[in-house]
Amino acid sequence: MRRTATRRHYLMVRPTYFDVEYSINPWMDPKKPTFTEVAVAQWEWLRNLYLELGHRVEQLQPRSGLPDMVFAANGATVVNGQALVARFRHTHRCPESAAYLRWFREHGYRNVRQARWINEGEGDYLLAGPRLLAGSGFRTNTEAHLESQEFFGMPVVGLTLVDPRYYHLDTALTVLDHDTVMYYPKAFSASSRRLLEELYPDAITASDDDAAAFGLNAVSDGRHVVLPQAATGLVGQLRERGFEPIGADLSELLKAGGSVKCCTLELRAGQTEGPRHGR
Question: Which end of the chain is more exposed for a tag (fewer CB within 10 A), N or C?
Answer without folding.
Answer: N
